[in-house]
Amino acid sequence: MTLNNRKFNGTRSLLFKIRSADSTPIQPEDTSMNLTKTKKAAHKFALIILSLSLLLAFFPIDGNANLAQAQGERKQVLYINSYHPGYKFSDDIQKGITTAFLEQGNITLRVEYLDTKRLNSPEYLEEINQLFKLKYKDANLDLVISSDDAALNFLFQNADTLFPDVPVVFVGANYFDETRLKGYERFTGISEEADIRGTIDLALGLHPTVRKIVVVNDISVTGQNIHRAFDTLILEYPQITFEFLEDVTMDEIRQRIGTLPQDSLVLLTIFSKDKAGSLFEYDQFTSLIAESSSVPVYGTWDFSLGYGIVGGKLTSGYTEGERGANLALRILAGEDPASIPVDKQVKSQYMFDYKVMEKWGVEVSSLPKDSIVLDRPVSFYEENMGAIWGVLIGFIVLFSIIVFLAINNNQRRMAQIDLAASNRDLKAVQGSLEQRVAERTKALTTSTEVSRRLSTILDRKQLVSEVVNQVRNAFGYYHTQIYFYDDARQNLVMAGGTGEAGEMMLAQFHKVATGRGLVGRAAETNEPVLVSNTFLSPEWLPNSLLPETKSELAIPISIGDQVLGVLDVQHDVIDGLQREDVEALVSIANQVAIAVQNAQSYTEIQRSQALLSEALRAARLGNWEYDFEKDLFTFTDDFYSIFRTTVEKVGGYKISSADYSKNFVHPDDAALVGIEIQKVLESKERFFTTRLEHRIIFSDGEIGYIAVNINVERDENGKITRWYGANQDITERRALEEINRKRANQQEAINLITQKIQGTTSIESALQIAVRELGHALGMRATMVALEPTVSAGERTPIHADGVDHE
Predict the structure, then answer these.
(1) Do 173 and 191 contact (CB within 8 A), yes or no?
(2) Which of 14, 400, 538, 619 has its CA 20 to 30 A from that of 358?
(3) What is the pLDDT of residues 55-73, one digit of tens each?
(4) This prediction's pTM
(5) DSSP code of 301?
């Protein structure tokens, strides 16, 4: 285990348990050392010399040490883990328990996993209960340990029947309520208390301008306990606004925290399952949230350290496990559990990630005393202190040995022979180490480069081409290729390959059925498949385009349990592929999986944005945001299209309210707009909405109409936190309304004339009324109609019907 491993446990107590080759304790400050492989080899060489020197100086050459081991009565302890292997916090708890028990030396530890992160139904837990009844009916256990709330709840329900009279020690029970122990006197343990206040005080001290903290927390049992802790804690920070993102999807969280203002922070507790039911391991949810956040992210548990958080006052699973084990040892030694109160002390440590600190401008000098800093650069002496002192002491001891051996030639010759043999072995080891260092460095460099390139590629075809070519060139493989499942998930279709063979297989739409060959088995099992000699493997599928393949390695490209495809590499040398290749390519395959998922998400987002833009254009809608404090509107292209202009003509997406009024509001309606704005400012409602219609001036000078929907949100203090809305072009609607109004007036005039005509008794009167009313309706000064009816003598006598006047 190297100290700059990204999965570093991050606890002081764990560091003191790690031992190097000469059993010298590794100090906490070593956590910041980035030792190279060559320097480690030098350190190891010095330690071996020192050990050999001490052996030769103080023990007879031909003597044999007598070993004795005291055996006492062994205790039987069952450890019930709420979750599954690989869940870091519970794994660290188990490491702390195991380490403490190993030091005791007379304890047999049995481990069971409930796997409740994946399955937690009453039926499932009852099946577990029945299994334990059968499995432990004759176990004669001395003690039971549980970690986290799910296992403790299981024991509360079933311990009396499963393990009658057996003491129970619980660990990781979040904010444990001691009233629950009524009737369970044989239960005691450690209440897991995250140091939320410590992390908040730390973050506010490092970022004094912060006025808002966004808390990311799920709604699991643990998450609900954490939220209850916040209910009273936030009252101590009246100057801070707290926002909780809990019963939401991961995409909603990433979108929200990606647009936070600079006076904000994100406090991450735990988020193992989102609203959509998606499960996330600690490294997944931490990385996703840290990568998406526009502001620094702090945490409360050490499993998030190394995955993008700045740090915090963190609770360690290893420390919690060690505390629980020590309490268990007291009970195994004879103490009554009922006499041991629940330990509710907060055990946390200031811990930070130096690279993330650099990103957000946090100085090491501003950190609290005794802080642990991951990956902190150190001086040459600090970096090589062990090797320097080891070599120095080794030379001193060797000098003493030379003086001593001068007295005894026989012993000196024997020592010289042994030393020569040791030197030969050390040279061989050193040569092997240097080769492995070179290979590992190449693998890490390639993995880093691939990861860097993949993070910027959103086209899957380009992504595949980059990966296969970089992997082949960096490792010197004979052939590299990538497969992805088809839509029916019946076949793995080749998406890219190197060289002419890769081009030909792509042209032939080369595919492999699920479960067939090494590629099919890797996809089916979601596990790497390595064949060092393909001629000896019955599963290997030969390919005439790749006649020189002699070893092959297939790595699943997957996210959790979902397999997307397979990364396959081939070598033209038997045993050309080893376990070291598996480790390097698994990392690259994981990056490919994430990049493919990002590419798919990007495509879906683009499609959604296109549909939204089309809908906005069809509805003639344009959205906007208004920053009240800065007096700046933020508009979109759809908004500008309403006014028949573009962002290039206006000069940007952000303009002041004065420029908006000057460019777009009709001067005669400016007062109307001002009245509505005044209503907004005078309102005290948390969520205020209003609507108005006013005239506008299009960029071509034409006058039109828009409808403006205004929405304003305020915090509990009445401060405006968001001001936004949408404008809609209603010019055509207003024109249609005007036409309908005129038609209605005309119809009303016709009805009136008809009524008046119906009240007359002669044609001449009817005509006069019709002429007069038509003149009024049409706005005419004078109107006349002349009729020439036929008389019996065949003559025509004119009849005049005057409207207003007649000349």
Answers:
(1) yes
(2) 14
(3) 544 444 443 333 333 345 8
(4) 0.41
(5) B
